[in-house]
Structures are given as C-alpha cells and as structure tokens.
Amino acid sequence: CTTFGGGGHVVEPIDHAREVFAKIAKETTSYSETIKSEQDTRLKVVDRVLFEVLGWNHGDVQTEEQAGTGFIDYRLGIGDAARLIIEAKKEARPLGIDTRQAARFFKLNGPVFHTEAANEGAEQAIRYCGHKNAELAVVTNGNEWIVFRGSRLGDGKDTRDGMACVFPNLEGVAAQFAVFFDLLARENVERFLYRAFFQEAEGHPVRARSFRKEADRNYLIKFAAV
Predict the structure, then answer these.
(1) pTM
(2) Residue by residue, what is the 3-state secondary structure of the chain?
(3) Would you say 106 and 166 are in contact if contact means Cβ atoms under 8 Å apart?
(4) Would you say 86 and 76 are in contact if contact means Cβ atoms under 8 Å apart?
(5) CA 192 to CA 220: how far, in whole Å?
(6) What span, in angstroms and rounded, lies between the C-alpha atoms of 70 and 106?
(7) Which residues, given as ranges, of the chain have pLDDT below 50?
(8) What is the rounded CA–CA span in Å between residue 165 and residue 123?
(9) 134-144-209-225 Cα dihedral, nearest 10 degrees
C-alpha cells in the first residue's frame, strides 16, 4: 500500500524504504569499527534492514531455532509457513563478492562463491531450508549479500546448480535497491515475486506482472513443479 508524505503527496513503499536504507547505510559507516562479531552484524545491520527497510514484523522472525543438529540465525515466516532463511557471518569473514556488480546472478556452485564463509553459509542455509521447507535463502556479513533459492521444491535439480544474486556492499544495495527490495521485502516474498528473477536468470523468463497476478491467484497449481 502507499503512504502519504508531507503535503499529502503519495510515497510508494519502495521509495520510503530506499530513503530509510540510505540513512541506515550512512549510520552503519559511522560505527563500522564497532561491528566485530556475528552478533554485531545481526544487531547493527541485518535487524535494521529486515525491520526498518524490508517491512518484516518482529512476530515473523524466529532466531536460533533448532533445525536438525544446528540452529538457524533467522527463520522468517508468514503465517505458519517458513519463507526465508538467513545465515549471518561477522564482517571480518568475506563472502568473496566485493568486486562483483550488484544484482548480477552467478552459479551457486561456480567460482564466484569460493570463500570459506560463503560456502559454509550456503550449505547451512540449504540444510535449514530443507528442514523448514523454506525456499528463499540469504547469506550476509552485513556488507555483502548473497540471495538464492535454498530449496527448489522438488524440481529434481541440485540446489547448488541454481543461481544466486549478489550485492557486494551496501553501496551496491543502494545502487540496485529495486532488485534488493523485490527479492526480500516481506510483501514481495509473500507473493513469491523473487521466483521471476531466478527463473529468468536460469533461462526461463516470466513476465513479472503476470507472475505476480498468477501467484496471488493460483500459485500451487501453476508453480508446483518450479
């Protein structure tokens, strides 16, 4: 839904979110030297982006929920359904995408994701997506963000053969904010809008407008085999 700003003009949610993100990115830069641990990354960056920018509610989020022998950093759900798994790393653990162009897609099992933190985070997220039957996954150290499908919902393909969208730093998120928002904002995750991006990246383009309409109306029938 839209909101009204000063003077009664309409402010779209994505525009408001981008303004808030710019503020957070600036503040994060000012206290970056205090972001040392994984917990610092979660508290000072990831939490703020989730709740202040992407529109997730505190009631949507479960932290440190057990999944098998591990514990999930963030399990984000809508209603009773898990929708998004996030694995956080401390900023000192690079994900190896700092030189990449924002909003580009790369093979998850390709040479781009070569660092220990990136591979560890991806494997954790895939495992937890399997336990919780969530589809979307993120690995982030607060600065670098990797977004991918942690579960392919029974299409018979190896999860690591899928594509991942990268944002090399917060400046890259700001530069390609529309893609970041479309992939991860609560309202868009609820409508499975991210699927259009991954299908196109994998060579099966879907018109985003048609996809959104169909997903709202009859997701299970048309996309059960995606």
Answers:
(1) 0.87
(2) CCEECHHHCEECHHHHHHHHHHHHHHHHHHCHHHCCCHHHHHHHHHHHHHHHHCCCCHHHEECCEEECCEEECEEEEECCEEEEEEEECCCCCCCCCCCCCCCEEEECCCCCCCCHHHHHHHHHHHHHHHHHCCCEEEEECCCCEEEEECCCCCCCCCHHHCEEEEECCHHHHHHCHHHHHHHHCHHHHHCCCHHHHHHHHCCCCCCHHHHHHHHHHHHHHHHCCC
(3) yes
(4) yes
(5) 11
(6) 27
(7) 4, 209-211, 213-226
(8) 16
(9) -30
List Cα–Cα distances, 27 to 34, 55, 72, 158, in angstroms: 12, 19, 27, 40
Q: Token digits for 179?
A: 């893609």
Residue 3 β-bridge partners: 11
CA-nearest of 192, 184, 137 to 162 is 137
d(CA 70, CA 50) in angstroms, rounded, equals: 22
Render pLDDT for 75-126 as a digit per residue (tens, 0 to 9): 999 999 999 999 999 999 999 999 999 999 999 999 999 999 999 999 999 9
User: Is the distance from CB of 208 to CB of 196 less than 8 angstroms?
Assistant: yes
